Amino acid sequence: METRELTCIGCPLGCSLTIKMENGEVVELTGNTCPRGDAYGRKEVTNPTRIVTSTVRVSGGVSAMVSCKTESDIPKGKIFDITEALKLVDVPAPVHIGDVVLADVCGTGVNVIATKDIAAK
C-alpha cells in the first residue's frame, strides 16, 4: 500500500491530507475538514491537473507581449508541451481579455485565452 502526504489547496485552511492507495485507487483519505479537501486529494493522486499561465508575443501592439492562461485545467503531464507551443504563438493587436490565442492547445480540448487588453499602435 502506498501512502501520499499532501497539503490541500482547495480552501485557505491548507489541511494536511494523508492518502492511502492500492493499485492506483484511493482506499482511504484523512485530514480534510471539508468536502473540497476530499475531492482535491482524490483528483491530485489519480489525475492531477493544472491551469497554465504564460505570455505570448503580440505584433503591432503597444506592448510586445500579452499574458494568457488556459481556460480550464489541463493534464499536469502536458504543461511543458503547452509552454513550448506558446513560444510559437504571435497574435496581432488589438488583443482583448478572453480572446483565444491558441485553440485546443496540444490536443487537450482547452483553449489558451488572453488575460489582458493590448491596444494596437
Task: Name the beta content range.
Answer: 35-45%
Query: What is the total tally of β strands?
Result: 10
Q: Tell me the number of helical segments per DSSP (H or I, 4 or more residues long).
A: 2
Shape: elongated
Mean pLDDT comes to 96
Secondary-structure element sequence? EEEHEEEEHEEE
The end-to-end span amounts to 60 Å
Report the C-alpha radius of gyration, rounded.
19 Å
Percent of residues in helices? 10-25%
What structural class do helix, strand and pairing data support? alpha+beta
Taking the sheet with the most strands, its summary is: 5 strands, mixed
Strand order of the largest sheet: 8-5-6-10-9
pLDDT < 50 runs, ≥5 residues: none
Subunit organisation of the chains: single chain
Secondary-structure map:
Elements: E1 2-7, E2 16-22, E3 25-30, H1 35-46, E4 49-50, E5 53-59, E6 65-70, E7 74-75, H2 79-86, E8 90-92, E9 100-102, E10 112-114
Parallel strand pairs: 5-8
Antiparallel strand pairs: 1-2, 2-3, 4-7, 5-6, 6-10, 9-10
